[in-house]
Design goal:
six-stranded antiparallel barrel, globular, Elongation Factor Tu (Ef-tu), domain 3, Virus Head Decoration Protein, Chain: A, mainly beta, nine-stranded mixed beta sheet
């Protein structure tokens, strides 16, 4: 009778921080942005800590996978996006869209249902939570301020804009000729200066807090998100050179 070998597999977890060592900030920080119930913040997750308000924003960024569309991109499991988030394609600062909902039914990836298509979005592009693209209220002396002029103005100058061209408008005023606005370009909403130092599951119970580390050596291959060049100075975070990312 032949010997039958059976293989048993177990779910493992590759450590994100070298030797598990990091230096923690005292106390916990209140989440500044939306984190969906059921989300697990693993160690090494990027955060921006705001000491004046004792808040921490998780930095939401993910690479686009093959097989989606420009309005329904696929991204890997374990991302941090939530319905209602404003997102941009990194490198395209003239467009933002909203995550209408997230389809989690596939075991291998999630699908972000976007409020509008992002032209040209394709595999390996990076999506990030963003500030809104559009016109905001301004004062006459502000850098980049534009004077609103009537729609029938024949030849607006470089510092003027027709009323019907102020779109999308992000303010709440009823605009008129003589008001001032300026264009706000899309850019990632948060800049990482710390990392998550202890695993946190958001289960909807109790007061949610984020434990942040100010010094660590992070094993980059263990992470499921890309690092943007604008955040980095070599292998260190620009905003905190005590956070290093290495391949080991």
């Amino acid at each position: 009778m032949p010997i039958e070998f059976k293989r048993t597999t177990y779910k493992g977890h590759t450590p994100e921080i070298w030797r598990g060592e990091c230096k923690m900030l005292p106390g916990g920080f209140k989440p500044k942005n939306t984190i969906s119930t059921g989300t697990v913040l693993n160690r090494g997750t990027l955060v921006e800590v705001f000491f004046d308000t004792l808040e921490a924003a998780v930095v939401k960024v993910a690479k686009v996978l093959n097989g989606g569309t420009t309005s329904k991109p696929r991204i890997g499991k374990g991302h941090l996006f939530a319905a209602g988030d404003v997102v941009m394609k990194v490198g395209k600062n003239d467009k933002t869209v909203t995550v209408s909902s997230i389809d989690t039914s596939n075991a291998d990836y999630d699908v972000l249902n976007l409020s509008a298509a992002i032209t040209g979005l394709t595999k390996d592009d990076v999506l990030a939570e963003s500030i809104d693209y559009g016109y905001i209220d301004a004062e006459s002396g502000d850098e980049g301020a534009l004077t609103i002029v009537a729609n029938d103005t024949a030849n607006p100058t470089s510092t003027q804009i027709k009323l019907n061209q102020v779109t999308p408008y992000l303010g709440e005023e009823t605009l008129a000729a003589g008001d001032y606005v300026k264009l706000q370009l899309a850019k990632p909403k948060y800049t990482p200066n710390m990392i998550v130092g202890a695993v946190k599951t958001f289960d909807g119970k109790g007061l949610p807090t984020i434990d942040a580390a100010y010094e660590a050596v992070v094993l980059y291959p263990s992470l499921n998100f890309p690092l943007l060049d604008d955040w980095m100075n070599g292998c260190c975070l620009k905003a905190n050179p005590n956070i290093l990312f290495i391949k080991q």
